[in-house]
Amino acid sequence: MHIPDSYLDISVAIVFILLSLSVLTLSLHRLKKEKLSSLFGIVAAAIFAAQMLNWPIPGGTSAHFVGGALAGILLGPYAGCLAMTVVLTIQALVFGDGGLIAWGANVWNMAIVGVFSGYYTYKALEKFGKTFASFIAGWLGITLAALFAGFEVGISASFKYGLQITLPVMGIWHGILGIVEGAITAGVVSYISSRRPEILENRAPAGKIAVLGILVMVILSPLFAYTAELVNYSEPLENAAELLGLPDYSVYSGLLPDYTVPGLDPYFGTLITGAIGTLVVLALAYGMVKYARNS
Amino acid sequence: MHVILEKSLKEASKYFQNFFIHEYSEKGALHAVDARIKIFTTLVLIFLSISTFEPQKIIFIILTLTALAKLSKISLKKIITRIWLFSSFSFTITLPLFFQDPLYPFLFTLRVIASLTAIQLLIMSTSFSEICSALRSLHAPKIFVSALWIAYRYILLMFQELISIFMARESRRVAKGSHLDLWRKGGESIGLFFIRSFEKAERVQLAMLARGDEIAYYRGRLRKVDFIYLLLLTFVVVWWVVI
To answer: Quick check: B39 and B235 in contact, CB under 8 A?
Structure first.
């Protein structure tokens, strides 16, 4: 399920980097008072090791365990999401599994959608029995993560198969593989609840507003990605004007018209204007911070 | 359960070679470049590879990466071994689109090859401790970088622990179970493994507290070789724009 670079459009990849970073920042903020680096590290290493196991399934093929829902159930959603991010980052930077530009999308799918949906499904169904709840959580976590991956790849113009192909391929295949994920998650949770139940009970409650915010982001993320893909590198108003056939009259074209430098190659011009814009914003931000400190 | 063990050990032995790839790579030019610069330039090279479908631009990036590998004494054969599987997968799945756009499967695969090679050059010329230090220097949160470093150091040990649990269960097994039985028993074994992981995490946390709970990160100043490499990459970017 790890998406490599070049399968996603840059605009789609950037949307998911921003979304993932915002949830990770929130998770780190929620856990800032806890000394957890070794817990994240060791549990991340354990999830990594568990992912190495090759589970045989009927028909001669095999499947790998992902562990997003399990991480959420064992560590809570925030710490689980960070532990899964650690796993995905090592996989990208040591093993070359999953791209660097696509890192945000992979974190979004497996460490955020997989963990949060798994955790809350487990919590919602816990009253029907831990084994049943964890099976559904494991199955749903991986299936939703795969559907998001299918959406991100399908919406990207670089990958010519559309959503009508990528969504069913990813969804149906992982819906079937998800049974293995659910069975293993249920086995682990049932064993831990009988031997060390306190591991499953000592989770700090997640804040309602924060969870609502993440839920809104998860629900709206396809819309963000779709808009980013639609707009791409041009202005929505320009697209609308073009659609309506309105003529283009410029009142003042600016110092750097259309984000280019007159007389230079458009791409090179865009790079230069981008650098100038960034420097101006940084200088303004620096000035504001200095002013705020002095006053 | 022996099926899980056999398949997992076979796959893991290939996978874990990655841990030592930096150690057995001969030291070349790219190894001397600061990891912060290498992370930045890798992102730029991937960006250049995936933001175009123009054949001359993609081929230019692949040639640049090949030259960098040669300069850095990184074996092209090893890079190919590590990227061929996903490159051929990308070609296979895009091949049905040949009749709509004959060039598309080739250009898409070349983009994949370029981006995968860029990542492999980073991995094969940079140790993970350098990457962690670089991430910390680039203001990645301390708790996250510490967790990355701890996870990296414990992966082999945790895998060994997991395999030993499966081995012990396998040696006590008297009957062949169904697939469902296998998943259930396997789930129990992983449950035991996670309980041990939590216990180990508590011990490691206490040991870290006793030692001061600090992981030192090296933050050196950029050297001449770093600026030369940046200049070279600037030239690549300008040339990529021009062609």
So the answer is: no
Q: CA-to-CA distance for B114 and B92, rounded, in angstroms?
A: 17
Mutation for testing the B interface, residue in A38, A88, A233 having most B CBs under 10 Å: A38
B89 touches chain A (CB under 8 A): no
Does residue B232 belong to the interface with chain A, where contact is any CB pair within 8 Å? Answer: no
* A64-76 confidence digits (pLDDT tens): 788 889 999 988 8
Closest chain B C-alpha to A219 CA, distance in angstroms: 26
**Residues A212, B220: Cα–Cα separation, whole Å:** 43
Burial class (CB in 10 A: 0-12, 13-18, 19+), A92: buried
CA angle, A97 then A1 then A10, to 5°:
75
Contact A53 B162 (CB under 8 A): yes
**Interatomic CA distance for residues B237 and B182, integer angstroms:** 54
Q: How far is A209 from chain B (nearest CA, A)?
A: 23
Question: Which pTM does this prediction carry?
Answer: 0.83
Mean per-residue pLDDT, B191-211: 83
Q: What is the dihedral of CA A141, A142, A148, A153, to 10 degrees?
A: 170
- pLDDT digits 0-9 by tens, B216-237: 666 678 888 889 999 999 999 8
Q: Which residues of B touch A189 (CB under 8 A)?
A: 191
Q: Please answer whether residues B104 and B94 qualify as being in contact, where contact means their C-beta atoms are separated by less than 8 angstroms.
A: yes
Length of chain A: 295
The better pLDDT of the pair A267, B37 is held by B37
Interchain pair A52, B8: CB under 8 A? yes
Report yes or no: B8 at the A interface, CB cutoff 8 Å. yes
Tokens of B122: 């980073």
Judge if ipTM > 0.90: no
Angle at B242 between CA B80 and CA A281, to 5 degrees: 95
Contacts of B143 (CB under 8 A, 6+ apart): A28, A31, A32, A36, A37, A40
Which residues 148-187 of B are in CB contact (within 8 Å) with A?
A: 148-155, 157-159, 161-162, 179-180, 182-187
More confident residue, B200 or A224: B200
Q: Spell out the residues 6+ positions from residue A75 whose beta carbon is closer than 8 angstroms to its own.
A: A39, A40, A43, A83, A203
Strand pairing category for A62-64 and A54-56: antiparallel
The whole-angstrom distance between A251's CA and the closest CA on chain B is 30
Residues 6+ apart with CB under 8 A from A192: A74, A199, A200, B191, B194, B195
Please count the other Cβ atoms lying within 10 Å of the Cβ belonging to residue A175.
16
Angle at B161 between CA B155 and CA B164, to 5 degrees: 140
